[in-house]
Write a structure and sequence with these properties.
Blueprint: E1 3-7, E2 10-13, E3 18-25, E4 33-39, E5 46-51, E6 58-60, E7 68-73, E8 78-83, E9 92-99, E10 112-113, E11 117-122
Parallel strand pairs: 2-11
Antiparallel strand pairs: 1-3, 3-8, 4-5, 4-9, 5-6, 7-8, 9-10, 9-11
């Protein structure tokens, strides 16, 4: 059983930056592809970014491409989401997720999910 704990959310002004972290425990981290998703109030959960086990392949939603960067440190069992040039429409709860299924970008059928961290971008 893999446990995922997100951190790094908060309140930031439009144009600012935040770095989210997701620490994993209870499994062999390098065996898992990782993803970030977000859910705004009243909306469905959306894919944001994902990364394969080695960090050599990454995918992004069109809405964040060029502004967000996903990365991972397998020695620290952690995946990151660097968010730059934030916009009010990026406001959401951000979730990280893990899957042992071979990496396919953009999927949402992950095995494990964190509890989420709130990101609020003010205009």
């Amino acid at each position: 059983q893999v446990q995922l704990v997100e951190s790094g959310g908060g309140l930031v002004q439009a144009g600012g930056s935040l770095r989210l972290s997701c620490a994993a425990s209870g499994g062999t981290f390098r065996n898992y592809a990782m993803g970030w998703f977000r859910q705004a109030p009243g909306k469905k959960r959306d894919f944001v970014a994902d990364i394969n086990w080695s960090g050599t392949t990454r995918g992004y939603a069109d809405t964040v491409k060029g502004r967000f960067t996903i990365s991972r440190d397998n020695a620290k069992n952690t995946v990151y989401l660097q968010m730059n040039s934030l916009k009010p429409e990026d406001t959401a709860v951000y979730y990280c997720a893990a899957t042992a299924i071979p990496y396919v970008s953009g999927r949402d059928n992950y095995d494990y999910w964190g509890q989420g961290t709130q990101v609020t971008v003010s205009s």
